[in-house]
Amino acid sequence: MAEDAKTCLYDLHIALGARMVGFAGYAMPVQYAAGVMKEHLHTREAAGLFDVSHMGQVILRPKSGRVEDAALALERLVPVDILRLAEGRQRYAMFTDDAGGILDDLMVANRGDHLFLVVNAACKAADIAHLRAALSGTCEVEEITDRALIALQGPMAETALARLAPGVTGMRFMDVATLPGGGADLWVSRSGYTGEDGFEISLPEAAAVAFAQSLLDMPEVAPIGLGARDSLRLEAGLCLYGSDIDTTTSPVEADLTWAIQKARRTGGARAGGFPGADRILAELDGAPTRRRVGLLPDGRAPMRAGTPLFASETGGAPVGRVTSGAFGPSIERPMSMAYLPLDFAAEGAQVFGEVRGKRLPARVAPLPFRPATYKR
Amino acid sequence: MKFTEEHEWLRVEDDLVVVGITDHAAEQLGDVVFVELPEVETQVAKGDEVVVIESVKAAADILAPVDGEIVEVNESLVDSPAMVNEDPLGAGWFFKLKLDDLSVLDDLMTEDEYKDFIG
User: Fold this and answer.
1) Do A52 and A183 sit in the same domain of this protein?
2) Which of B56, B75, B78, B86 to substitute to test the interface with A, most A CBs within 10 Å?
3) Strands of A198-204's sheet, edge to edge?
4) For all residues of chain B together, what is the average pLDDT?
5) Residue A280 lies in a domain
6) Using an 8 Å Cβ cutoff, are A87 and A112 in contact?
7) Is A334 within the bounds of a domain?
8) What topology is assigned to B2-100 in CATH?
9) A214-234, pLDDT tens digit by residue?
10) Strand A102-110 vs strand A115-119: parallel, antiparallel, or unpaired?
11) How far is CA A166 from CA A148, A182, A196, A200, in A?
12) Does one domain contain both A143 and A13?
């Protein structure tokens, strides 16, 4: 096994008392001294700082100089309207494969003369190869390896970040901007992975430790590890690639149809034209056979990833499976995401999760489990 | 107080043995969010899985540290599982065992031995 890579904030994590784990080839903080529960609640009440420098940052620079050409090129890989993504805006997307499965999910920002992509750490090498293979004719595909990525999330994130970069107060959800702050140029987006208002900040590695330390010195800000990141995103109903979505799930099954704009659907201006379009459009026009749902166990035992789901308390084969499950510190109860056949996927439908040999009742619940508080 | 390699503590109170997990174990587990207790008046053998706990990270079993009969369980943990983290050596106890012979506790670790064990 190769040794885990370190982000430029590694020494800071250690100094902060982090417990480190291997994650997607990186040594990352799973929690700090406060622990998962307190870190989760702190993010919901004040502001949490996350090191997400392990994620891939990629620039697509159109050889023609026209960002529309990069947008149209990228549309060949994603079922998303990139052409109409305005300058200074960001959008959620996913790379699909020929079978209509999901290769990775990502954020795409229009930064004027280029597109800026943020992809999952575990997928970034494959994503970049995929982009180069498909888009090299029209775009330079440039992996950014000298910038850190920090997320600041929570109701006090704006107050805290504005002390270093006053320009962030004018941004709304999914805006992107280049702003001076902490002596560096910050590539800021008003977005995140917690359901909270907040920001994701790409900045030069050389400035990252001092910048993170400046934020952590503020009374509102605490460092947050991967453990709380997972319970925060699950309460927010957001998918984790590799658990809730992967090559075996289509975007329609995953209930991500909101990310597929009209222009790419049947009858749209640029309908289809992405990998797996036949299946994905057919599922949009008709219906998938199963769908990702929220699941709330009646009792207090968490139903974790892999828990088989049954239609009844005894007998029968499983009808579905939990893909993520944990205790939700803010909703104060366990919660899961699962795939279920449409017959069982209606809100309020009862299924039974088998936990330690016992079938325990749970009900299909709307996602998110906790409403988002984005500044739209 | 005596200790096991499974990070349990045992304390004799009124001829019964109270069992919980050490603060080291509670810290390693992380915040406990669910506790499933055994039935009282159950005979258990050393190594039996008697309690299930779930933390924010994972599920874990608490094993019977010695043979005996479960005579009382800490019902308050069902509604307040966080007590395991807040007071693991006190209010976070799990169950009380009745033993035929308390001398089996002599084979378990002392506090100093347990401290050496966890390094």
Assistant:
1) yes
2) B56
3) A176-181, A184-189, A198-204, A147-153, A47-51, A221-223
4) 95
5) no
6) yes
7) yes
8) OB fold (Dihydrolipoamide Acetyltransferase, E2P) (2.40.50)
9) 999 999 999 999 999 999 999
10) antiparallel
11) 20, 11, 20, 15
12) yes
Closest approach of chain A CAs to the CA of B45, in angstroms?
A: 20
Q: And the tokens for A140?
A: 């330079």
User: Does the pLDDT value for residue A258 go beyond 60?
Assistant: yes
Do A131 and A238 lie in one domain? The reply is yes
DSSP state letters, A189-256: ES--SSSSSEEEEEEEHHHHHHHHHHHHTSTTEEE--HHHHHHHHHHTT---BTTTBSTTS-TTTTT-
pLDDT of residue A3: 87
Q: For B57-107, what is each residue's pLDDT tens digit?
A: 888 999 999 999 999 999 999 999 999 999 999 999 999 999 999 999 999
Domain spans, chain B: 2-100
Rounded to an integer, what distance in angstroms lies between the CA atom of residue A40 and that of residue A196? 11
Per-residue pLDDT tens for A142-164?
999 999 999 999 999 999 999 99
On whether residue A337 sits in a domain, the answer given is yes
Answer whether residue A279 is part of any domain: no
B30 closest CB neighbour out of A35, A304, A356: A35
Indicate the residue type of B5: E
The two tokens of residue A118 are: 């943020």
As a whole number of angstroms, the distance between CA B105 and CA B42 comes to: 20
The CATH number given to whatever domain includes residue A342 is 2.40.30.110
Looking at the structure, do residues A240 and A360 belong to the same domain, yes or no? no
Count: domains in chain A: 2
Tokens 């057919």 identify what position?
A: A282
Instruction: Verify that A235 and A194 share a domain, yes or no.
Output: yes
CA-based nearest residue to B59, from B39, B86, B84, B29: B29
Per-residue model confidence as pLDDT tens digits over A323-338: 999 999 999 999 999 9
Asked if the ipTM is above 0.90, the reply is no
Angle at A280 between CA A269 and CA A277, to 5 degrees: 55
Average pLDDT, chain A: 97
Find the domain containing A308 and state its range. 289-365
How high is the pLDDT of residue A1?
53
- Chain A hits for B30, CB-CB cut-off 8 Å, are 31, 35-37, 227
All residues of chain A having their beta carbon less than 8 Å from the beta carbon of residue B57 are 36, 227
Structure tokens at A277: 């379009």
